[in-house]
Amino acid sequence: MPIPHISRAPRKRGRPARGTPASREIVLGAALAHFSQTGFDGTGLRDIAATAGVDAALISHKFGSKLDLWKAVVDEIANRLAEAQKDIMRLHDDTAPIEQRVREGLSCFIAANCKIPELAKFLSDEMSQPGARQDYVMLRIWQPYQAAMLPLLNDAKADGLLGESTPELTLRMLMGAIMLPLMMIRRSGDLPLSEISSLKERLVKTVLPMFIEAT
């Protein structure tokens, strides 16, 4: 289900009506929205509860501490990115030219990120602050993405497409070049599928030539 945003009107407090989606998804969406806007320290469980339309006690019962809830948010992000990472890994043994495979890999990653508008800001904040939360983000989100993309960039390096840059440095620069525009795009809700496709193509067309030398 789409991740709710802070700007949406909160639902009434109390137990969700029978037959409605489980409150877990609603709480995780509200938590991601708050964490991405006000950071971990600036977010309280009561803030998240108000946006989700549930009691703070329910959040504590379902998730435990604020840190436990934050980890559940990261795990949910990782789960939503997993399919894109699988698609990227399928390109490892593809016989298409390496430049095309790198382009398709970036397309998969960008499309997945476009579907989670809060993700760029959330990752930017958490990956800039050393500590246990940064370590958790690196483990659950960055390392799987790195494992998917590095083999493609290693092949690109072997074919002379990276110039003097290393695959590891290229990947970090690619991440920054993708996440910054996404972070700066302000949206009140998830992008329509038609706009996701358009934005994905524009980003790939703009970002790829910055790091991959044309053959």
Structure write-up:
The chain is mainly alpha-helical and 215 residues long. It has two domains: 64 residues, Homeodomain-like (Arc Repressor Mutant, subunit A), CATH 1.10.10; 138 residues, Tetracycline Repressor, domain 2. 68% of the residues lie in helices and 0% in strands. Helix 6 packs across helix 8 and helix 7 packs across helix 8. The longest helix is centred in the last third of the chain and has 27 residues. The protein is elongated, with a radius of gyration of 19 Å.
How would you spell out the order of helices and strands?
A: HHHHHHHHH
- Which CATH top level class of the largest domain fits? Mainly Alpha
The shape, in one word, is: elongated
> What does the radius of gyration come to?
19 Å
Name the beta content range. Answer: under 5%
Note the gap between the termini.
41 Å
CATH architecture of the largest domain: Orthogonal Bundle
Regions with little confidence, pLDDT below 50 for 5+ residues: 1-22
Number of domains: 2
Secondary structure tally: strands: 0
Within CATH, the superfamily of the largest domain carries the name Tetracycline Repressor, domain 2
Main beta sheet: none
CATH fold naming of the largest domain: Tetracycline Repressor, domain 2
Oligomer: single chain
Class by alpha and beta content: mainly alpha
Q: Level of helix content?
A: 55-70%
Give the integer mean of the pLDDT values: 83
Count of discrete alpha- or pi-helical segments spanning 4 or more residues? 9
